[in-house]
Write a structure and sequence with these properties.
Oligomer: heterodimer
Helix content of chain A: 40-55%
Number of domains of chain A: 3
Shape of chain A: elongated
Number of strands of chain B: 11
Distance between the termini of chain B: 22 Å
CATH topology of one domain in chain B: Amidase signature (AS) enzymes
Strand content of chain B: 5-15%
Radius of gyration of chain A: 31 Å
Strand content of chain A: 15-25%
CATH architecture of one domain in chain B: Alpha-Beta Complex
CATH superfamily of one domain in chain B: Amidase signature (AS) domain
Number of helices of chain A: 16
Largest sheet of chain A: 9 strands, mixed
Order of helices and strands of chain B: HHEHEHEHEHEEHEHEHHHHEHHEEH
CATH class of one domain in chain B: Alpha Beta
Chain lengths: 494, 492
């Protein structure tokens, strides 16, 4: 996509404006019980080399057998990215030597990936959105791990991860700022989590990105790019891009040229450094893996998976806007995390009138709940206030039982003490107090109408009982006597 | 009692059924013969205890009226097949004393499912790369055949030289072998034995040390066509662990023995009439054609126009796959490791010391043809040639040809050391008649058909339609009946 240059995306250099061009390869670990070509478990955190089959260890004569679930996950993901699904794809061998690569080659897909071109719509914080083209998605094996801290002069190898399925999702060079890049990866991660095809856990390395960055003068052809390998947090993606773009601009403005190379991001120093140059690049000697037949499936296989897809964030957002009248911003916030959207929908499910109160519920979820969770550093899963409790609070507001202000007090009680909001409202007499203005008016009316009694009560405070009785009478017994008592005391200066 | 080591597999089977002898007696007779024949270097590992234990169990099954189709029959196993707990080396130093914790599908069918007895592991060219069994780290295998009046030691062919030599010399009733470019059929032809390479996908490759995955197939070497049919039935079958194996019922191949070949159309490909081919090979070929004609088959000249490209294309595809398949031998997880001050040095030392010269040569060729800038010119073009070769055969079969008859090899067995150190191409030419079947994935059988002027056996090859091993068995038996059996004189 060559969208018009957005001035706000440009970087001011010493010699004029520059534009970044960014493309991202995301490696997403496929959610599956078994590895891509072996029956070994994919569980994280086992003892070293406890999830290794003979295939994963590349024992002589062992052969890969494709795991059907990984194929289904890749197709689901492709569908979630609005991408073309290739009914025939080919597994290739990518040959290189490394101790944590037991076969001496990685089984990947080179010329014929399982998923072709697609697109992702990305929302920015300012409410605008843009589209990122997907070049392809292919399946490949993850490598094992080299452990260099186990022995004085030897390295140890853990093959638990060896052979776990990865999806490499390659974007087109459509991104023009670090903000866009971060928003894209965030959105991609959200889609994968909705689909249940990757848990998106970047801390465990289950989602990592190779970021290709180049710079150019606006309107000019692409410059020479550098690839920053294995960036494992969204924040680091932004930092790495910012640093790398400025590094390249510095070089170009000095009249030098960019060397195409692979770089690493150092989060401690916040900078990228050269890993290997183009000349040192491996010759991977790709060729079709003769142990595996081409991967073929039918359109009906794809359609069955399509029919089973969950509602994805974009669809959900559109539905929230259309059905509940949410603002695009609120809808975007709610769908940005699958768990958040699920929580919100549970709240909706608990409401007496979701259509009426959906918008109020959105405000409560976003402002009160998310705000409080953020403040306390809690995840939605750890929320002390459940969806049904929150729904009850919103119902109480909606039906006029309590005011929004009292609802906040009630929320606080539920947050800290728990309990059924309706019961709490009754027990703590919060129900009656809701219409404080009306009660105040009742009190004021009685006081104003009885100046003689006011004089008496000031002399003899026990007389307040008479006032309470009058207010109770006037309200039809629907006000809380204690609250009335309190109000009267204030009003009468007792 | 008859000499138990000169029985055919079928005769031994029937003898066991009649209780003329026991499985243990059969095993002992073979173990003794193996001991006497160590000069042939056919076995790289004899497993007498295991053999006797298996034989005893087989005898117990016989006593109970149980037992699979190969119950109690002693076989040899090419050292390319993983045998659980028993050293498996592919005859390469790099595997050292590797004892697999698993059993190949083919051998588990033979031994666990069908009751055969394993005598030991048979010599082969290192990683099955060779046509003379001289590249083995255990040294060359000696052919039990010698030229008349000569004691020059001859090669048994390769890469399944140990299998062929052992079968010819009566050191087992039959042997497993593998064929990537002729490694079953060429040694069978050199030793007067029968070698059947089935259709690609007929046997599971699981647990067989890989040479070139798209070409490798397991098959039997035996003394008769019937024996080949018997073993084939036990070796074949679909295996979910090898996705290139084909899910197709395994026929009773033995039923094809003696089946009439009347009316079958036999193709004689004109491109196999090589310039400078020895007259006796030419004569043998014509003789074979006459025998088939006499049995009622119809002979037709056919054309396989891309034959001449098969060998060069094979020597691109096979090394390319091998260069990748052999990358796993890095000294990290199993086998031999030569130290070094860093990982790259360790790799280099391990692989330089662990692999022999021919394996290193093929790894380098394979690495080269897959390299950026050369891939299209070599690997991709070779794959296109392969498609054309396949189509040549398809055209023939579409025209009604049932099988194709060719010589198995361009010559009889040659002397050990005779072709070593020379131009490797000369060695590669041994496979000229056999590689086409691998390139096209077709079944091929080599059947002994005569002798050369010096008294050495010569073989003919039949190439069939995909999964039509039965026709090859029927036709092969016609040649066998006409040519008679070939047994070397014992000199060892």
């Amino acid at each position: 996509m060559n969208a018009p240059v957005k001035p706000s995306n440009l970087i001011k250099g010493a010699t004029g404006d520059w534009e970044m061009v960014i493309g991202i390869e995301v490696h997403a670990q496929v959610t599956s019980n078994a590895k891509l070509f072996s029956g070994a478990s994919t569980a994280f955190g086992g003892n070293p080399n406890s999830h290794v089959s003979f295939v994963d260890a590349a024992m002589p004569g062992m052969l890969p057998v494709i795991n059907g679930e990984c194929v289904r996950q890749a197709v689901r993901t492709g569908l979630g990215l609005n991408a073309r699904i290739n009914l025939r794809s080919v597994f290739d061998r990518k040959n290189y030597f490394y101790p944590d690569l037991p076969q001496g080659y990685q089984i990947s897909q080179y010329q014929s990936p399982i998923v072709g071109e697609g697109e992702v719509v990305v929302d920015l914080a300012d409410g605008t959105s843009f589209t990122v083209g997907i070049e392809r998605l292919h399946l490949e094996q993850d490598a094992g791990k080299s452990l260099h801290d186990q022995h004085a002069d030897m390295s140890a190898i853990d093959l638990n991860r060896s052979g776990v399925a990865l999806m490499e999702i390659v974007s087109k060079p459509d991104l023009r700022s670090s903000e866009q890049a971060k928003a894209y990866v965030t959105k991609l991660r959200t889609i994968l989590r909705y689909l249940g095809t990757c848990d998106g856990d970047m801390e465990k390395g289950n989602l990592r990105a190779d970021v290709n960055v180049s710079v150019r003068r606006p309107g000019e052809p692409f410059g020479t790019r550098c690839e920053i390998k294995n960036v494992n947090s969204i924040r680091f993606i932004g930092q790495a891009i910012e640093h790398e773009a400025r590094r390249q601009i510095g070089i170009l403005e000095d009249g030098d040229s960019i060397d195409q190379e692979t770089r690493l991001f150092d989060p401690d120093k916040g900078e990228t450094r050269a890993m290997r140059s183009k000349e040192e690049a491996h010759d991977y000697r790709y060729f079709p893996d003769p142990d595996l037949l081409p991967l073929e499936f039918s359109q009906s296989f794809v359609e069955a998976l399509r029919a089973d897809l969950p509602e994805l964030p974009d669809q959900k957002k559109a539905r929230f806007i259309a059905d509940l009248g949410l603002t695009p911003y609120d809808a975007a916030v709610l769908v940005s995390e699958h768990e958040c959207a699920n929580f919100y929908e549970s709240v909706l499910g608990g409401l007496a009138d979701a259509r009426r109160d959906g918008k109020v519920a959105a405000n409560w979820v976003i402002n009160e709940l998310f705000g409080r969770l953020n403040k306390e550093g809690l995840s939605i899963a750890a929320s002390p206030v459940s969806a049904s409790q929150l729904a009850a609070i919103i119902d109480l507001i909606g039906e006029g039982t309590i005011s929004g202000k009292i609802a906040k007090d009630l929320f606080e009680i539920v947050w800290t003490e728990g309990g059924d909001p309706r019961v709490l409202v009754d027990e703590r007499g919060m129900k009656q107090v809701t219409d404080m203005g009306a009660i105040e008016k009742l009190v004021a009316d009685i006081v104003d109408a009885n100046p003689d009694k006011v004089a008496q009560v000031r002399a003899k405070p026990q007389m307040i009982g008479w006032f309470v009785g009058q207010v109770m009478k006037a309200s039809g017994g629907k006000v809380n006597p204690q609250a009335v008592n309190d109000l009267l005391k204030t009003k009468l200066g007792l | 009692m008859t000499n138990l080591t000169s029985l055919t597999l079928a005769e031994a089977r029937d003898g066991l059924a009649r209780k003329s002898f026991t499985s243990l007696e059969l095993a002992d007779a073979h173990l003794a013969a193996m001991e006497r024949a160590r000069v042939l270097n056919a076995y790289v590992l004899e497993t007498p205890e295991r053999a006797r234990e298996m034989a005893r169990q087989a005898d117990e099954r016989i006593a109970k009226g149980e037992g699979g189709p190969l119950n109690g029959l002693p076989l040899g196993v090419k050292d390319l097949f993983a045998t659980e707990g028993t050293r498996t080396t592919a005859c390469s130093r790099i595997l050292d004393d590797f004892k697999p914790p698993y059993e190949s599908t083919v051998t588990s069918q033979l031994f666990t499912r069908d009751g055969a007895v394993m005598l030991g592991k048979l010599n082969n060219d290192e990683f099955a790369m060779g046509s003379s069994n001289e590249t083995s780290c255990f040294g060359p295998v000696v052919n039990p055949w010698r030229r008349q009046g000569s004691d020059v030691k001859l090669v048994p062919g390769g890469s399944s030289g140990g299998s062929a030599s052992a079968v010819a010399a009566g050191l087992c009733l039959g042997a497993t072998a593998t064929d990537t470019g002729g490694s079953i059929r060429q040694p069978a032809a050199f030793t007067g034995t029968v070698g059947l390479k089935p259709t690609y996908g007929r046997c599971s490759r699981w647990g067989i040390v890989a040479f070139a995955s798209s070409l490798d197939q397991a098959g039997p070497i035996t003394r008769t066509v019937r024996d080949a049919a018997i073993l084939m039935r036990s070796m074949a079958g679909h295996d979910p662990r090898d996705t290139t194996s084909v899910d197709r019922a395994v026929p009773d191949y033995e039923a094809a023995v003696g089946k009439s070949v009347k009316g079958m159309k036999i193709g004689l490909p004109r491109e196999y009439r090589l310039e400078g081919m020895p007259a006796e090979i030419e004569k043998l070929w014509s003789q074979g054609a006459e025998w088939l004609k006499a049995a009622g088959a119809e002979l037709v000249e056919v054309s396989l126009p891309h034959t001449k490209y098969a060998l060069p294309a094979y020597y691109i595809v096979a090394p390319a796959e091998a260069s990748s398949n052999l990358a796993r031998y890095d000294g990290v997880r199993y086998g031999a490791r030569a130290g070094g001050s860093n990982i790259v040095e360790m790799y280099e030392n391990t692989r330089a010391k662990g692999f022999g010269a021919e394996v290193r040569r093929r790894i380098m060729i394979g690495t080269y043809v897959l390299s950026a800038g050369y891939y299209d010119a070599y690997y991709l073009r070779a794959q296109k040639v392969r498609t054309l070769i396949k189509k040549d055969f398809e055209d023939c079969y579409d025209a009604g040809v049932d099988a194709i008859l060719t010589p198995a090899t361009p010559s009889a067995a040659f002397g050990i050391g005779q072709k070593v150190g020379g131009n490797p191409i000369e060695m590669y030419l041994n496979d000229i008649f056999t590689v086409t079947a691998n390139m096209a994935g077709l079944p091929g059988i080599a059947v002994p058909a005569g002798k050369d002027s010096q008294g050495l056996p010569l073989g003919l090859q039949l190439i069939g339609r995909p999964f039509d091993e039965e026709t090859l068995i029927s036709l092969g038996e016609v040649i066998e009946l006409a040519a008679g059996r070939f047994t070397p004189e014992v000199w060892w």
